[in-house]
From TrEMBL:
It comes from Paenibacillus chartarius. Residues 2-84 form the Cyclic-phosphate processing Receiver domain. The lineage of its organism: Bacteria, Bacillati, Bacillota, Bacilli, Bacillales. Pfam families: cREC_REC. This is Cyclic-phosphate processing receiver domain-containing protein.
Length: 112
């Protein structure tokens, strides 16, 4: 089981696998069991954004166990949450913001 951090610019926290694009993130979701997925929304000029990942998750019914949104785009976060709320399985934990320090510390401990 892995943790995935999607961001085109920010450094990846310890204990996470970095995805720099929507395509990389979808590939990880397809091929791995994902515990934590932390999403940035904007992924570069003319590039697919994280809403494309959310739409793929919904279409494939393939979700991580826990979702966080570290994006600075409040409109993007709200869009992703609005897409997820009606369809999200009850066993998926949806968090409306970035990972708290204790979650980051847990990921670091598991990586060592």
């Amino acid at each position: 089981m892995i943790h995935v951090y999607l961001d085109d610019l920010r450094p990846c926290p310890a204990g996470f696998t970095l995805a720099r694009s929507a395509e990389e993130c979808i590939l990880l979701l397809k091929e791995c069991e994902v515990d934590i997925l932390s999403l940035d929304y904007d992924l570069g000029w003319h590039a697919p954004n994280a809403s494309d990942i959310v739409q793929w998750m919904i279409a494939e019914a393939r979700y991580p166990r826990r979702l966080y949104f570290h994006t600075s785009s409040s409109a993007g976060r709200d869009r992703m949450i609005a897409l997820l709320l009606p369809v999200l399985p009850a066993d998926v934990e949806l968090n409306y913001g970035p990972m708290p320090d204790e979650v980051l510390a847990e990921a670091r401990r598991r990586a060592t």
